[in-house]
Design brief:
Length: 577
């Protein structure tokens, strides 16, 4: 029999196409609908990693994509497996993360017979949550439609794609010559700005006195990190970043201003606000102050660089829109500048000093009510150093940790994006550790968020991953409790207190090396033990429930004295009659 005559099942065609795309690992939870595919993966030498909940498998694939700047692949079964994964699909969509979700389905021929795990239109359900969703109608179309899905995930504005492959399509076989080819797998255009745009960029820099860069999700790559470092060193423009884009300048760069939110605090430090904001691969939205102008001042001029031209100009006019790749843009600007940048006096160093904003803000490390979460996070960060990948989950817990950590490269911080989705962290940690087995991965979370996917500790233990999970346990849905207290009074709480659950005991039962810490001084030795044990480890730190992170205050907003407004927590107020 010639190669052309060889018969291949749909599962083999799918796995072979993934292998041709360079996929080496698929994150999954078993379901018989996909056995044809799993068999193909084993034969194609693609590693299968199994989880205990489909959303966590999806978050892991998402994290894999984020930390490798490549494609993540998640395979989940028909019906309930798919509905369980919707949160992961939506989360990847709102963060433009390129994940291929392969979804099982009941046989096409059994439509409307009340079949097992069928009866819902999965593609219709997936479409509003994904960049693209399609059902493969026949076995021979698997290679080209899979290649198209991968192309759509990885090009332009990236995002999750959903490929439904019904079980009969997977199990049927066709002759190799009948199958389509996986064309266009290598398509990765990186658009550059026009020469005119590069010149205009320089004109705006020359006219500015207080420029800043705010880096966003599209800037998260080694190549952009290098280009940004060259640009910053030459142009002396301080760099701020959304939490996910931290680390682009490496650890301890003098012009790294830390979180973008620090820009809102410049007036508190006696500094003027920026007059030019360069949004580098960053989108406007709540995480950059929404319409308020608190982070991107209304009066500032703005350059926005983003692959999706339709994204440029959300919430305000943009002085220079550039629909291009961030690294290409910076390189083009550097080439056009020929080394001549104006310089901005002491502005860059003073603005970048905002990264030390919280230093000294909380004098007491602990009170009888518990350890202060700022100091808990700082002690954890100190113990870990700057080489780790961090996954930050929980409400205020993520913010305490985000303000404390230092990272030495891009793609080292994974946390909430615009879905604001609690529970992503453990899946993220597993995906990151799978991508970089030799890199330290630290997962920090709140006690509430720990409960969403606590079962994935089993996954970590089963796969022998030395992830260190840190829970800041304030025995409450802290961000929610604090929001209620601020709005309705100190004694008000509805649905926001949690019990005294010992998460360390739960982690021990799953097989982690665990301990609970109740004093500040015990944090460093506990972290040292966790970091050196070489096994999945778990440190539960009991924190002060009354400590409120400033992010909660800023997100809640206020009603100005005399203003006729109804306060809408977490959004803009609405006018009152
Ligand atoms: C999946 C999900 N459910 C509910 C919420 C609403 N929510 C936002 S912050 C928060 C509290 C988080 O509590 P915890 O994880 O204990 O962290 P803490 O704020 O106490 O540090 C909740 C419930 C959400 N964002 N996502």
């Amino acid at each position: 029999m010639t190669q052309e005559d060889k018969r291949l099942t749909g599962g083999e065609l799918l796995a072979n196409t993934l292998a041709a795309a360079g996929v080496k690992r698929v994150f999954a939870l078993h379901g018989g609908h996909l056995d044809g595919f799993f068999k193909g993966c084993v034969e194609a030498d693609i590693d299968l990693m199994d989880f205990r909940h489909e959303a966590a498998a999806g978050h892991a694939a998402d994290a894999f994509a984020r930390v490798t700047d490549g494609l993540g692949v998640c395979a989940i079964t028909a019906g309930p497996g798919f509905t369980n994964a919707l949160t992961a699909i939506a989360n990847a969509w709102l963060d433009s993360s390129p994940v291929l979700f392969i979804i099982g389905a009941a046989p096409l021929r059994e439509i409307e017979t009340n079949p097992l795990q069928g009866g819902i239109d999965q593609v219709a359900a997936a479409r509003p949550l994904a960049k693209w969703a399609i059902s493969v109608p026949v076995t021979e179309r698997i290679p080209d439609l899979t290649a198209m899905a991968i192309r759509k995930a990885l090009t332009g504005r990236k995002g999750p794609v959903v490929l439904e492959v019904p079980i009969d399509v997977l199990h049927a076989s066709v002759r190799a010559s009948q199958a389509t080819t996986p064309c266009g797998l290598a398509t990765r255009p990186t658009p550059a700005p026009s020469p005119l745009e590069a010149r205009r960029f320089l004109e705006l820099l020359a006219a500015a006195r207080r420029p800043v860069v705010i880096a966003g999700f599209e800037a998260v790559s080694t190549r952009t990190g290098e280009a940004l470092t060259r640009f910053t060193d030459a142009a002396k423009v301080p760099v701020f970043a959304k939490t996910q884009a931290m680390g682009l300048l490496g650890a301890a760069h003098p012009l790294d201003g830390g979180a973008a939110a620090n820009l809102a605090a410049l007036p508190m430090l006696g500094l003027p606000r920026p007059d030019l904001v360069i949004l580098l691969g960053a989108r406007l939205g709540l995480l950059l102050g929404g319409r308020s102008g608190s982070v991107v001042p209304h009066e500032a001029r703005v350059i926005q660089v983003h692959s999706d031209a339709g994204e440029i100009g959300r919430l305000r006019d943009i002085d220079l829109p550039i629909a291009a790749d961030p690294a290409e843009t910076l390189d083009a600007v550097m080439a056009a500048a020929h080394g001549a940048f104006p310089g901005y006096g002491d502005w860059p160093a003073r603005a970048a000093g905002a990264r030390r904003l919280l230093t000294g803000a909380y004098p007491d490390r602990e009170t009888p009510a518990g350890i202060h979460p700022h100091h808990a996070a700082a002690a954890v960060a100190e113990a870990v150093g700057s080489e780790a990948i961090w996954t930050l989950d929980g409400g205020e817990a993520a913010s305490w940790a985000g303000g404390a950590i230092t990272v030495s490269g891009p793609g080292r911080v994974l946390t909430h994006g615009y879905l604001g989705c609690l529970g992503t962290g453990l899946g993220y940690a597993i995906g990151a550790q799978a991508a970089y087995p030799n890199r330290r991965v630290i997962h920090v979370t709140g006690d509430g968020s720990m409960g969403f996917h606590v079962q994935e500790l089993d996954t970590i233990v089963r796969h022998g991953m030395p992830i260190v999970t840190v829970v800041l346990n304030n025995q409450a849905w802290g961000m929610c409790l604090h929001g209620q207290q601020i709005m309705f009074g100190q004694n008000y709480n509805v649905l926001t207190r949690l019990g005294g659950t010992c998460y360390a005991d739960i982690a021990t039962a799953f097989g982690c090396v665990s301990e609970r810490v109740t004093t500040y001084d015990a944090i460093a030795p506990a972290m040292a033990r966790a970091l050196s044990c070489g096994r999945p480890a778990f440190v539960e730190i009991m924190t002060d429930q009354d400590a409120i992170h400033p992010i909660t205050l800023s997100m809640l907003g206020t009603v100005d004295k005399g203003a006729k407004e109804v306060q809408i927590p977490y959004y803009e107020n609405v006018p009152a009659d």
